[in-house]
Amino acid sequence: MSGLGNITKKEIRELLTPATFVPIILVALIFATMGNSIQGIQEQSTAPPTIGVITEDNSTLGIAASTLLHTSAKTVYNSTSASDLKTGIEAVTEHNGVAVIVIPKNFTERIIKGQQGTLQIYWIMKGAGLLDTISSSAVESLIAYINTNISKELITQNSSVNASFVLSPTKRIETTYFKDREFVGISPNTISGMLSSQSLLIPIVMMMIIIMAGSIVITSMALEKENKTLETLLTLPVKRTSIVSGKIIAAAFIGLILAVIYMVGMQFYFSGFQMTGGVNLASYGLALTSGDFIWIGVSLFLALIAGLSLCMLLGTFAKNYKSAQTLTFPITMLAMIPMFITMFADYETLPIAVKIFTFAIPFSHPMMAPRALLFHDYTLVIGGIVYIAVFALVTISIVVWVFKTDRLLTGTTKFKWLKPLIRRRH
User: Fewest CB within 10 angstroms: 82, 129, 350, 379, which?
Assistant: First the structure.
């Protein structure tokens, strides 16, 4: 039993390291944050939407629809004239509302004649993320509830009413205001879906490049330490800057090849899920130009260089291949966090603390670039490129400094025998 106990104690000491527990703690924190976010989403989805109502129809169905809107939503503006629309939009926008709904004069008259009554909805869209469309989805549910109640009223009054009409007695005429643009005929959910499909590929590809290429760099450093080839490399008459740059360029080259292969596969994958809704972003002036793709490419390449330099810095702490596997986790998390943030929320609608955190992660910028460029927000894109370049240069400088010390091989400065040998070589 003593032999078993000693072996067990030895294994526990080897496994009981920060590298083992830090990733697990980070995962627990991420899950806790996600749980709080989901709880917040549930609370937001159950809260009544903030709207404005303009009721021009004083007849039965018009008043009924208006009453349902007032009782089921938080109404911050109420009027009886469509000429007050501009004032209503300003009031709802000031209260962070989602829409102004206009019930026109002939609403009841058309429905009684067997024609669909018209509801004019003027959406105020704040962001294009999935979380930003919760309020608009609540309003759409409210419109569906009005539709259902009108259907019940029609069936009660006339059991022989046309079935196809009674199932859909109203129709919507929608206009969405988003980032100083007017989108006639489409809802915020449609715009969000279109923008998500346009900008989904870059975050996924960016994440996969960082994970794959970063793993290559960290594992390579660990194997060189384990096989003692790094000691030989450092004794060669080669500048440390050249060693670091060579490793990063090689890993970036492999990463870009993997990215191209992955992008081709993902394009075929997403093509199977494309919906033909008859709405084209280009018709609303939302299309990426060849210059925009160049900006995205520069941002993507610099983010890759920054990520690989960060991976190489982490790789200097790897003692062997086994420890290198745990060091890839922080990079994976740094790539996944901005991916989920850009998918679920718009950068402009994020809280200031989350904005700073997202901007500080270099991998966020190529993920945010496509959506920003669609709306000609070059300040965010160029500012991100400058930040990534500075981040990469600083990180590479730190890696070069580490390569010039004994810490790369020993983790301490205890073994000074290598310094005279390296000086003689240089």
Answer: 379
